[in-house]
Please model this.
Amino acid sequence: MISLKKLGVLGLAAALSISVAACSKGGGSQATSNSTAGASGPVELSMWTHNAGNKEELAAITSVVTDFNASQAKYQVKLQAFPQESYNQSVTAAAAAKKLPCILDIDQPNVANWAWAGYLAPIEGMDDTLGKFLPSTVAKYNGKTYAYGYYDVSLVWVTRASILKKYGIRTPTIDQPWTADEFGAAMKKVKDSGDFKYPADMGTGWTGEWWPYGFSPQLQSFGGDLINRTDYKSAQGALNGDQAIAWANWFASMAKDGNMAKKGSSDPSQDFMNGKTAFLWNGSWTAVPTRKKFDDVIFAPPVDFGNGAKVGGGSWTWGASTNCGDPAGAAEYLKFAAADKYVAKVAQDTNNIPATDAAAALVPAFAPGGENDIFRQYSKKFTVMRPETPGYPFIATEFEKAAKDILNGADPKTTLDQAVSNIDANQQQYNS
Amino acid sequence: MSIAVAAESASGQKIAAEPPSRKRRSTSGKAAVTGWAMLAPAGILMLVFLIVPIILTLSLAFTDARLISPTPAKFIGLNNFTRLFGSNVFWHSLQNTIVFALVIVPVQSACALGLAVLVNAKVRGTNFFRTVYFLPVVTSMVVVSMLWLFMYQQDGLINALLAKIGIAGPDWLGDPNTALFAIILMSAWQAMGFHMVIWLSGLQTISADLYEAASLDGANGWQQFAHVTWPGLKQTRTFILITITIAAFSLFTQINVMTQGGPLDSTSTLVFLAVRTGFQQQQTGYASAMSLVFFVLVLAVSLVQRYLTRDKDLQR
Model:
């Protein structure tokens, strides 16, 4: 059976490598020597990133690699960039063919899944350094650290001071976010005015990871969760308990009452800037364009639905694979690259929240008192990680489907019960 | 559809390759070797990309294989199938797939035939119309889906046009009652150009003498169509019926781009469900079971069609 599965995955790998070669702009060939120790000269360490289509971040990462290669003569890191759409598939295929690179970046919610599958090697001896990182930028599974990231993002309610003033809505603060009642009243006031197409846009026009990332914090604020986090065995009670039903009813009512579109546009920030919506539930990445458009834009904290305001955590992180011919080299790179100045550089160039205090101090906008400091505070105070279980990718798809069905009028209890039973069945395999 | 074309070309090759090899087998082994060598490119491609995956699917369907897992796949008997037949989403998807096929086969082939008859007329500018009708076919399905996604929006082009004649259009893709219909309409529009060309080639094989004789006998336009054109298109008809059916069953791209199976599973199809289960949810074994059911379904439908459209004269 082992060989059969291997054959299947290899077939998949072959097919994928063809499709990757055909589709990628800057991907290039898949065959990468993991580490070829030359008779003379440095050991080559291969490194993969998802950043082929993201100029700023790729340039920042490249500069870290260049610095590392110049700093010592023992190792030579060779960076290869993939387009984000096919990155995960490339890694899966490479893992099946035992051709994983030494160092790679991983979307944080996938870390537990890949660690469990044996793709990733734990990072050791960096506890002191990583202790200074925002908890949401250090990816753990089963008590071990597998990856760390340079930055995080935060979720915010984007609106304008002039809108709050016109409709008499209190300006929320990090210590006093809107309550559920306040938020509901605000929605009603803005809707009744008829000044906007919809009072709010929560990004319902997007698909995929946005759903669990954007909406599970709201579920958690109601007191529910995607799974019971004590043992990660079951979602019973967490995803279908009374609090979860309350969240589902609220979520469905947002669309039913005309507070937001059942399926929004694919560019919610643009709609907000064009005055079609008054409140935008989005990531801190929307700060740059909205500030450019409005001089009175406000980034309000998430609504507190009773259990505290919550935002999601975790972005792209870096780790080492189990396929590396020279684990010491990979560890050395990861140590080198965790320096504050690199954290500051990558975060600054990508406009994201720097992972450490020292790095934040180096980036004016994120330094205390800077215009983006608020995102960092939200992230520190409100972050709930997406569940660190190998079953997360499955949970994410089930939650997305359940949330969409609920928005389209499905019965909350039945829908969430079904999602729970699917998730529980899938979680079983991780406990043996 | 590509499978059908591959099978067609492969069987064509077989027919072409067989008679000479049978004739010369006794006289020269070299010819047989040449025959096999000629067959090899198509044969190897079919083996690697068709036969091997089918066998793998067949065996993986009875295991708990995962896309990403540290443990090897285990044989779990019929568990995947019992789970599949107990799943509401599966029955929804099966129903949607069948409805899609039942509607699109007659609609698309009839529209394509209508277009073919139109562009077969001997008037000026037919080449222009042939090109126009064929354009959607050479446009990528993903692009077409994105465009129609915008057109189908509640305040999109289609509803704006409907509003002009006083009809308040529905939220086409957001309403479970209209979503599948909207997808059918758009799919038929996209693909009918291809079948128009096939019909056209069929129309042009019909000898002009037959029409001339018919008109001398006083047959009107409709009679000519019913008694000359339609019988003359028999072979074309079979080909079109089978290719549209197979293409209809493998409905995926439109769904993936436009609705992701929603709202409320109203546009979920078997292939979409299998891809979602196998890749996003990483359940290779379960997805293989779905593919196997799909394979059997398509095979059964194709065999029934072959039987119904068989050449009865030849059988006698």
About this structure: The interface with chain B takes residues 1-2, 4-5, 7-9, 11, 89, 92, 95, 113-114, 116-119, 207, 262-263, 393-394, 397, 401, 404-405, 408-410, 426, 429 of chain A (CB under 8 Å). Chain A has two domains: 18-153+315-385, 155-312+391-430. The first strand of chain A starts at residue 43 and ends at 49.
